[in-house]
Structure formats: C-alpha cells, structure tokens
Amino acid sequence: MSIVIFLVLLLVLAWIEKWIYDAHWDDGLNVRISFGTDRSVEGGTAELVEVVEHAGRLPLPWLTVKFQASRDLVMPDSTNASVTDYYYREDIFAISPGERITRRLPVTCAKRGLQTVRAIDLLTNDLLMISRYVGNYSGSAELVVYPRPVDTSELYFEARRFMGEIITKRNLQEDPFVFRGVREYVEGDSIRAINWKATARSDRPVVNQYESTTSLSAAIWLCVETAMDPVVAEESIRIAASVARRLIGDGIPVSLLSNGTDCITHQVTRISSGCSPQHADTVCTALARLDTENNVRRFVSVAADDKTGEEEFVIVIAPYVKPAMVNFVKEVTEAGREVMWIKPVRADEPDGENELEGIANHYIWRVTDER
Predict the structure, then answer these.
(1) CA distances to 175, 264, 314 from 253, in Å
(2) CA angle 45, 265, 260 (to 5 degrees)
(3) Rg over CA atoms, the chain
(4) Do 75 and 105 contact (CB within 8 A), yes or no?
(5) 214 exposed, middle or buried (CB, 10 Å; 0-12, 13-18, 19+)?
(6) Sheet holding 99-109: strands in order across?
(7) Considering the entire predicted model, what is its pTM?
(8) Which residue in 238, 267, 232, 183 sits closest to 345, CA to CA?
(9) Could you report the per-residue pLDDT of 18-31, keeping only the tens digit for each?
(10) Which 3 state secondary structure label does DSSP give 41?
(11) Distances (CA, A) of 27 to 24, 32, 329
(12) Contact, 207 vs 182, CB < 8 A?
C-alpha cells in the first residue's frame, strides 16, 4: 500500500513539476548574438558574441542555443554544425538561475558581403527530463565584409600618370582656402593679394600665394554581367574598392556607379562623389553589398542616366568588352571626358587587348591566385 501511495505522490510531483515548467521554463531567459564590430574585410576575422542570461528561478539541466548564419562565416569547432545554403550551429550551455554567460567565437570572413546571423532558437528540458521546450527569439546581427584589398601599385601609377596629363591640359586656379606662403609683389598682381602685415615687416610689398587646384575627380564605373566568371567578378570588385581608397587617400573625390544592385534595396548601385574617410567606407560598403547575380541591368542604360560631372576622370572596370559598351565609352570620350578602361582577365586566358584598340587608355589586369 505504501508503494502505491509513494508512486501516486511521485506522479503528482512530476505533474506539478511539469505544470510549473510548462508555464515558466523561459521566465527570465534571454539570448543575444552580435558581432564585436560592424565591419570587417574579406579574409579577415571578426568576433561573434553570444550572451545567454538566466534571470529566472527554475533550474535548467542544459540549454542549447541554435542559430543560422551566412555560410561564408567560418567558425571554429564545427562538431555541432552543418552547412547547406546556410551555416547552422548549436552551442550547449550549463547555466544556473541568476547567471549570465558570454561566449566569444572568432570567425573568419571567407567572402565579401553582408553577412548575417538570425533565427535564434533555445532548447532545454525540465529537471525530470519529461518534456522538451523550444523557444524562438527574434533579432539578428549583421556584419559588412569589405572586398579584400589588392595591390594596385602598377595600375595606380598608370592612372596617376594619365590624371597628370589631364591636369596639365587644364587651367589651374588658385584655391583661396589653401595658403602656401608669400612672394615679392610684381607688376600685374592684384592689390587684394597684398599681405599688408608681411609688407610692413619686410619694407617691400609682398603678396599671398595659394595652392593651385583643379576640379579633377574620379568616377568608377563597375560593369558586371549576370553569367560572368565569379572569380573575375570578385576581382573586379576588389579593384574598384582598392582604387577608390587610394584615390580618396590622395585627396581625389570619387563616385561609384555599377549596374549591379544592392542586395538589400535592390536598387542600382550609385554613390555620389566624396573624399572623406567616411566616404571611402560608404563606397566599400556599397561594393560589399553588390549583387552580381540578380536584377543586373545593362550598364549602358544605367550610365546614360548618370549625373556625374563632365570634369570627372572615368575609370571603367569591365571584364567583357562588348560593342555597345565600347561605342558608349567612345561617345563619352568624344564628349570631352577622359576614360581609362581596366579589363580583368584570368592569367591563363587570352587578354583580348585587340578588343580595346579603339580605347586609347586601357589596362589589362591579370587575375592570379597570388592576388
């Protein structure tokens, strides 16, 4: 009889325990996943931070955190992970009531893009292991991965030489905001240019000198194709990012235009001219988010609507030389804009330089594994 009573009490206790856990197992449970930074670079590393907090009172025998991440994020210890279109990972925590656990995972950014973590699930059991509980948490984390820098020294030398030729063709004007020094007054100088304080000290008239400036700026036109070689496509994007950063670093304003679309807005990629470090980040972010596979428009139709100034030096990055594009570039050149065409090709393929005979300034970029 006592055994029966004991079993009944045990069942009642189990039922009460299950009832309590059914209603309150996730009280005070919270999980947050974030990146230690909001940007990284292709081939670089970042930190994925998991924070699990248990502010409730019920003890949990174990807690599993499951999440879905971009497959281009490579994480250590992939024993409890699977990779299909996404990377699915499970991390197990032993956490007590009132405890917070922070786990930091180093991740390698295998590819440029907007890398995300989302679809966070929690799994656990009650103490008697009678029931399993699953909770879904909204929220996500994003990491912008910039294109990997490539060595553009030789290419940049050619571009700078060409830009120098453009500058010498133009009349230089003094920039009243950039003071260079003083010199002795000569007949024909403006009275307004006289530096009266320096004149008083030197007992002879002297005038202010200012740095010369031109309206030269650069427009990068990145032409992509839906079915283009992905290796060449990614190298083209790296060239655009690297050239943009070098130009901006030299104080030359840069704009960006591509017929590839933004992976979030699905709009054509178009960045107006700018020259600040923040603008360089804006350009690299746009290139990181560039979709070369979906909603790609004809570049000629996109560039025809371009509103950039006619004074800009245009850098065309286009692996494929098509008649429509060649004719369009020739029209742009004849209209007075200076153009340099960069053609990335695989190292083991013909360069096709003869296709660019009608383009006076062009450069063949060899895509090799070493890059």
Answers:
(1) 16, 26, 12
(2) 75
(3) 31
(4) yes
(5) middle
(6) 29-35, 45-54, 99-109, 73-74
(7) 0.79
(8) 232
(9) 899 999 999 999 99
(10) strand
(11) 5, 16, 64
(12) yes
Backbone angles phi, psi at 88, to 5 degrees: -110, 125
C-alpha to C-alpha distance for 336 and 273, rounded to whole angstroms: 19
Percent of the chain scoring above 90 in pLDDT:
44
User: Closest Cα to residue 49, out of 102, 96, 111, 112?
Assistant: 102
What is the residue-wise DSSP string for 120-158?
A: EEEEEE-TTS--EEEEEE---EEEEEEPPP---HHHHHH
Q: How far apart are CA 173 and CA 15, in angstroms?
A: 88
Q: What is the pLDDT of residue 316?
A: 94
Instruction: Give the Cβ contact number of residue 41 at 10 Å.
Output: 18
Say how far apart CA 175 and CA 189 lie, in whole Å: 16
Token pair belonging to 224: 């992509």
Strand partners, 311: none
Is the pLDDT at 212 greater than 50? The verdict is no
Strand partners, 240: none
Q: What is the pLDDT of residue 324?
A: 87
Specify the amino acid at residue 203: D
pLDDT in tens, 149-191: 998 888 877 776 666 555 545 444 444 444 456 677 666 566 7
E strand segments, the chain: 29-35, 39-41, 45-54, 63-70, 73-74, 81-83, 86-93, 99-109, 113-125, 132-137, 141-146, 173-184, 206-213, 217-222, 254-262, 268-274, 290-291, 312-317, 338-346, 362-367
What local confidence, expressed as pLDDT, does residue 172 receive? 46
Encode pLDDT of 223-279 as tens digits. 998 878 999 999 999 999 999 998 888 888 999 999 999 999 999 999 999 989 999
